[in-house]
Amino acid sequence: MVTDIILDWDATDEDNDPLTFDLYFGDTNPPVLVSENINVSTFDVTVLANTTYYWRVVIKDDKQGATVGQIWNFRVE
Question: How far apart, in whole angstroms, are the C-alpha atoms of residue 65 and residue 58?
């Protein structure tokens, strides 16, 4: 069974700098880069049943600052 889901995350910058995100997603750990320099905090993905997925977000500001988020996982039944 194929299902579409929305990955959603929150991020802020202490200096209120504009943020962009690199999204890593897939069924391998570590996940692979699927979208770079996006400026929204949601992303639609298609998943399959009986599969574990991994994802991570790298948060970047316009002054070369970056924070690498932890790897999250979920299983679709």
Answer: 10
